[in-house]
Amino acid sequence: MSTMRIPSRLIVVATLALAVVVAFSWWLATTDPSDDEASSNDPTAFQADETEHADASPTAPTVPDLSDVQWTYDSGRAYPYSEAAGPAEWSAGQPAAGFAHSPGGAILAAFHICARSGPPFSPETRLATIDEQMTEGPSRDSFRTAVENSLNDPYQEPQDVPVVSGYIVHFYSDAGALVEIAITQGELDAAYILEVEWDEAQEDWRLHPPANGEDWQEEFRQIPTLEAFTAWGP
Known about the structure:
two-stranded antiparallel sheet
């Protein structure tokens, strides 16, 4: 691949995507909030090594213009759509593609790709999203196998459905980005960081699969406040 890959180790302990509701609900039920209290209140908990990006021409953390985003319900959940940022290609229950080469496009691509790789989307949509929109490599292969093995697992909607509540762009360049998306479930706030890279051949963003190659559990972290996030959601 001709694109520049942002080192995967930049992903720190983060949280679950909106559509990976089963995993997120499990985490909320089994995690002691005090375990993450210190890191959640530490403003330096996320620290990217700037020297690793010296050749990537990054911008400073930015607030993209997502004022034209509209939220449309698909498979029972709200998903963001923007004429400027994308996706340009989508239909109900299917993978979404055609995201702008911009910070806003990176945010929407990360969100949609992550969401559509999990329930409540169909097995066909989940596997197509992984195959077509995640970066190639052993982690993607392992993640695909894990998803295939879980397709017949029972799925139960949680009582409090997670809702998107904000975002941060931690790093952006023409080659890739790190975006953090906050979600709220009941009275609990959490956030997750997703890494995307620009695919010149595909002319679209690709999402890095989970770091452990199995699920998004290691991408969770509970947060004490949404103050650092740009408010965003349906």
